């Protein structure tokens, strides 16, 4: 029983360190979650499967900031203007 407590305490400590010392960024989690949701859409999957655009999606600050907005995936799926803005950011970013 003592060993189990030590193991669970160690795992809990590691998780807390990652969360509060910058190893696990909440923005990164939200960004990845939004990417997973968008990949369910054919138009986005096509872009993200393209090596050139994949790099821009994941490493361009403007695209990242756009995808970190509150409820952006719902807005992109419901508003063609928002979708076109994302596509434009991806295709025009350098």
Structural class by secondary-structure content: mainly alpha
Q: What's the number of helices?
A: 7
Order of helices and strands: HHHHHHH
What is the share of helical residues? over 70%
Radius of gyration: 18 Å
Biggest sheet character: none
State the total count of DSSP E strands. 0
How many domains? The number is: 1
**Proportion in β-strands:** under 5%
C-alpha geometry: elongated
Q: How far apart, in Å, are the first and last alpha carbons?
A: 56 Å
Average pLDDT taken over every residue: 88
Give unreliable regions as ranges. Answer: none
Walk me through what this model shows.
The structure is a single chain. The protein is mostly helical and 94 residues long. It has one domain (25-92). The protein is 81% helix and 0% strand. It has helices at residues 2-20, 26-38, 42-49, 51-59, 61-67, 72-78, 80-92. The radius of gyration is 18 Å and the shape is elongated. The relative contact order is 0.10.
Q: Can I get a quick summary?
A:
With 94 residues, the chain is mainly α. Helices cover 81% and strands 0% of the residues.
How is the topology of this model organized?
Layout: H1 2-20, H2 26-38, H3 42-49, H4 51-59, H5 61-67, H6 72-78, H7 80-92
Helix pairs in contact: 6-7
